[in-house]
Amino acid sequence: MKTSIPPFFDGQQLPSLQEVLENVRICSIPMNVKFRGVQVRETALFHGPAGWGEFAPFLEYSVEESAAWLASAVESAWLGFPEAVRTEIPLNSTVPAVEAAQVPDILGRYKGEIREVKVKVAETGQSLQDDVARLRAVAQHLPAARLKVDANGGWSEDQAVTALSAMEEFDLLYAEQPVESVQGLARVRERLHEKKIFVPIAADESVRKAEDPLEVARLGAADVIIIKAAPLGGVRRALAVVERSGLPAVVSSALESSVGIRTGAALAASLPELPFGCGLGTVTLMTQDTVEHSLVAENGVLKVRPVVPDEKLLQILAVSAEKNEWWRQRITDCYRYLVDSQN
Ligand SMILES: [Mg+2]
């Protein structure tokens, strides 16, 4: 390996494939809203000596990509989490690319205090005026909250420079993935600096594999990285990647049930610095959870605690025999990939 990223499962011997397969439950969870084109989220939960872990790579992901997710789930269930430095994780609220008039209604759905709001921008079919109006509505509704935007790579470089210049008045915490490519992020950041506009740039979609944050840092493409435990191969590996990147990190979920959110919370709890609100509030996008009491925020804060799936819910959410077989084969393939990568 070219980079000095630690091995999967902390270099320790994995539990046997048989042990892994004997302790898995496959679930299918209907979503409240379509997300990434997904209406039903399929996920595998493992129960090991250290607790529970969630394995939920999207169905189209390759074995190579999914193997990191398996390493993360096995770490959660068999190794447990590294030492935490905090027990409460600040989360942001999210305003989708709605009309400005709908903003109070969206924000009204959050319980308690809101300190940080992520506003989606650069939606296809909308204009910069729509985005600015939405931001203004949030700022008026919550004058004390800090704002950030997420373009999901939807702007061209010119559009990003124009838009982020126009948004200077909102003193954004950062702008997430204004354009698609890592090189594009670097150029947008440089052009903004030339204009003396210092809105921090965050890389999200550009960070998928463990090598990516190091590339982002090397190119000076971003000031902040958005990270997820599962695609980076677990909490320990993600911590090492953040340390090596030298950039502040924001922890986000990969659209998992509360078991996976617990792993994200463990990562956020162990980071030496956590300067921004995290994106671990996605359980509310699902119609059901795998645990009885979901791991959700109150007053913008998620309290870290153990989560244990509910047997009745696991039965309700169980997949067909055919689906079950497909997942067991997928787990087997990913497991073999992990073993090979360790040798
Ligand atoms: Mg994002």
UniProtKB/TrEMBL annotation:
Pfam families: Enolase_like_N (PF18374), MR_MLE_C (PF13378). SMART domains: MR_MLE. InterPro entries: Enolase-like_C_sf, Enolase_C-like, Mandelate_racemase_C, OSB_synthase_MenC1. The keyword Metal-binding applies. One of its GO terms (biological process) is menaquinone biosynthetic process. Keywords: Lyase, Magnesium, Menaquinone biosynthesis, Metal-binding. One of its GO terms (molecular function) is O-succinylbenzoate synthase activity. Pathway: Quinol/quinone metabolism; menaquinone biosynthesis; Quinol/quinone metabolism; 1,4-dihydroxy-2-naphthoate biosynthesis; 1,4-dihydroxy-2-naphthoate from chorismate: step 4/7. Residues 104-195 form the Mandelate racemase/muconate lactonizing enzyme C-terminal domain. Mg(2+) binds at residues 150, 176, 204. Its cofactor is a divalent metal cation. It catalyses: (1R,6R)-6-hydroxy-2-succinyl-cyclohexa-2,4-diene-1-carboxylate = 2-succinylbenzoate + H2O. It comes from the Bacteria. The active site is at 120 (proton donor), 228 (proton acceptor). Belongs to the mandelate racemase/muconate lactonizing enzyme family. MenC type 1 subfamily. Converts 2-succinyl-6-hydroxy-2,4-cyclohexadiene-1-carboxylate (SHCHC) to 2-succinylbenzoate (OSB). NCBIfam families: PRK02901.1. This is o-succinylbenzoate synthase. The lineage of its organism: Bacteria, Bacillati, Actinomycetota, Actinomycetes, Micrococcales.
